[in-house]
């Protein structure tokens, strides 16, 4: 039912747009009906009356289908508030607070391991800069 009403609603919208565009333009707007004269099927006044009535009928039907779609869309709603859908299966009493672990005194870092007497990798050769050695102690007299 909802999809049929939606199709009718879209067809009414297209027909409403066409009838509005067919009406005679008074200020150079989008009207494509023109101001034609001469012997047509209908006089200008008769054509304007027909298009005005058609626009009113199509607008009324468009509003009615809009209301119908709104009502049909509302029947799918579960009703109630969003807050009513919150899961309330939590325990009734407050949960026990989590206590932090007791702080401990900082532990002194472990003594550094003995350094090996030989380097782990050979020193690079070539254009590397070696750090300067410490200055020699002055000689005692």
TrEMBL record:
Q: Which family does it belong to?
A: Belongs to the SecG family.
Q: What's this protein's function?
A: Involved in protein export. Participates in an early event of protein translocation.
* A GO CC annotation given for this chain: plasma membrane
Q: Does the keyword Transport apply?
A: yes
Q: Where in the cell is it found?
A: Cell membrane
- What coarse category fits the chief subcellular location reported for this protein? membrane
Q: Which UniProt keywords apply?
A: Cell membrane, Membrane, Protein transport, Translocation, Transmembrane, Transmembrane helix, Transport
Low complexity bias located where? 88-125
Q: What is this protein called?
A: Protein-export membrane protein SecG
What species is this protein from? Tistrella mobilis (strain KA081020-065)
Q: A single Gene Ontology molecular function, please? A: protein-transporting ATPase activity
Give the record's GO biological process terms: intracellular protein transmembrane transport; protein secretion; protein transport by the Sec complex
| Annotated TM spans | 51-72
Which membrane topology term applies here?
A: Multi-pass membrane protein
Keyword Magnesium on entry: no
Chain intervals for the UniProt region annotation (Disordered): 80-141
